[in-house]
Amino acid sequence: MSGKGESFFAGVVLGATVGAVTALLLAPDKGKRTRKKLNRKVRELNESIEDLYSRSLDSVNELSDNVEDNINQLARKGKQAVGKK
Fold this sequence. Notes:
By secondary structure, the chain is mainly α. It is 92% helix and 0% strand.
């Protein structure tokens, strides 16, 4: 996923979570029930963040592998070009 896509997804997750937490805190409900709901929302946010981190790490690793492959190809081509002279 591109950097803009990851940022957008992170913004959506954060915005949805902030909205849900705000709604829970402002809704008339018993304290114990509100804390349970809030705890559940925090766990969901944590899972979303872990998923985003994992996918971002995968993207970075893939990009790193591609860069390494390209550098190795350029090095081989450079050695071949030098050897032909």
